[in-house]
Amino acid sequence: MRTSRALGLVMIAPAAVMIFLFFLMPVVLTAIFAMTNMSTATGISGGAWQVTQTAVNRLKAEMPELAGGIAEPRFVIDEEGLAALEALKLKAGFGTELRTSHMGEVFPSRREAERMIKALKDRPSTREVKQISDLFNRSVLNTRFETRDQLMASLKKLGFTLTPAEQETVAATTYTGWVWTTENFRIIRNSPDMAQIFLNTAFYVSVTLLLFNVSYALFLAITTHYMPASTASVFRAIWLLPRITPVVIYVLMWKWLTWDSGFISMFMGQFGYPPKNYLLDSANNAWFFVILINGFIGASMGMLVFSSAIKAIPQTQFHASEVDGASRWQQVRHIILPQLRWPILFVTCYQTLSLLASFNEILLSTRGGPGRATEVWSLAAYHTALNNYTGNLEYGLGAAMALVLVVVGIVLSLIYLRIFRYDTLISKPLIED
Amino acid sequence: MAEKPQTSANFSSLPVILLLGFFSLPLLVMYAYLFIDTISDTEVGSLTPSEFTLRHWSFLWETKTGKPNIWLVTLNTFIFASCITGVILTVSSMAGYVLSRLNVPARGFFLAGVMVLHAFPSVTLIIAIFIVLQWIGLYNSLIGVILVKAAVELPLGIWLMKGFYDTVPWEIEMAGTIDGASRFTVWRRLVLPQIKPAMMALGLFSFLTGWSEFIMPQVLAPGAKVQVLSVYLASLIIDDNNFDFGTFKAVGVFYVVPVLILYVFFQKHLMNIYGGGSKG
User: Fold this and answer.
1) How high is the ipTM of this complex?
2) What is the pLDDT of residue A64?
3) How confident is the model at residue A199 (pLDDT cuts 50, 70, 90)?
4) Residues on chain A touching B34 (C-beta within 8 angstroms)
5) What pLDDT, on a 0 to 100 scale, did the predictor assign at position A72?
6) What's the structural domain count of chain B?
7) Taking CA atoms, what residue in A is nearest to B246?
8) Domain containing A84: what range?
9) Measured in whole angstroms, how far is the alpha carbon of residue A60 from the centre of its chain?
């Protein structure tokens, strides 16, 4: 039957398509977005060319005289202005003379334009000079151009002759959409904030991993091992609760525990301590609880993995050690721990990744506070790109920060793949067709 | 260990029970008060409740201004979790079978890919996914967030299903093909029934994951019409004007009770999967 292969392809197609669309594409797109300066201000689709005051100010640094020129009004004698002049129904001579002898002239200031108008043969009054000059006042300031060419054409009409290089600069400073840039990576490398966040992350991941995901999980697995089965399953159930409880409620309970009218405050109140918010009153306390909140969740996975690994140790080893008079500590040290080497490595790899990436718990408990004391990398990326107080969401910078995690994630999970040799897991199909 | 004669101090369990009981106290206190506080009022400065009340549960029959109706939110959550479960079960039961049994090109490569992605922290992709959903117009819709969530859970599902299929004896399929059934019929009629318990475990797990998910709906579908319970509860908590732990906890209990029920009844099934997918 030749259909085995075709059937296989058909059956795996939905998984392949979904994983490609929502898993692999976002990885690539994260890298692409990281190379842009996308933000709320630039939008995520294209932009326009807009000569705003801020754009002019930016331009001032590189081309002072041009920026000055753009900022000032310019006076151009053109058809549009002449038509408006006719509509004003002043003396017809003004229009005729302007058309014949001044058409297309550009005056860089109001004074020069008015001097010319005053010199017209029909001698306009001062009020009329002002009226006429207003009609020819042209400026690109606060004008929006849909294309780059429109902007350049307008500038040319106003008498600014620009070299291609100058045009490039003007276009770049007035463009409102996003552009390609490597600025994000420079910010990440140089900013002291980023260095602080990096240190926070390293501290958070290593301490939580060491204290809870490995040590405390080992402790849980070993203590439950020495218990009657029914008691052990009660404790395992209790310690799985943090993982099974939806994160929003789980963190809510911790908030209640540490709130200034919460359990700890009330409990300490019995001994005369004033109530305070134990979660947010100092950076040390915040870290203490952030690590506790995440550690309690993390401990359960290690507990399950280590428990089943301990269960796999032949009972005879324990019995033999009993006969030799080994203490409980000696059993742990010489029988259990040596045989848990691989499970410990597995848990360490797996949990490093999930600790690096998950920011749910910190977001819901301290929001990175007090100040930015408990801001970790993934949370900072979220804050930069998706949620912050200033309201300008910097997608590009956020994506660049996420890209750092993506790269670390790929590297660590490839190592993980090397450790747990997957090739031993593929067996050859026994039905060959 | 229980049936062993207690001759050695190594197997006296009292000290470890006491020690572990002490460490478990914070969790027990938090859960106990989670339930107590929803049906009672406690005076400030006291730890014992003073009177019985149901006012914290008023969110069930009156909608708060500016917040969506709780029943709509619950329905959304149910749809969200069920659809994810459906997608994950369908897609991963097929893909898992292919990886376990069928001879397709690049099978090893696909398996390695699934394993890498399983360990890969998908939440780091959320910024890119957010922009993509905005582009294709699925931002703020249940469909978008369901597809995304199901897709990022797929590697684990496929991985587990592959492990489950590996335990099914080949003889069943050989017998089927000898009797003239196609490979598809064999899978559908003979192999799938064998792994029903595993399917149930994965289904439960997916449902609970969907039910508990917070960050994806929060970022990808925060609108009032498509809000799910986690986002609803988080928005209550963040609203500084109405800070009331009683109500938060009542909503929390309303939200967590289905989870706890499923957990109590199907603990054994779930334990296998919460081991981090190392099974298989």
Assistant:
1) 0.86
2) 76
3) very high
4) 249, 253
5) 72
6) 1
7) A256
8) 73-138
9) 31
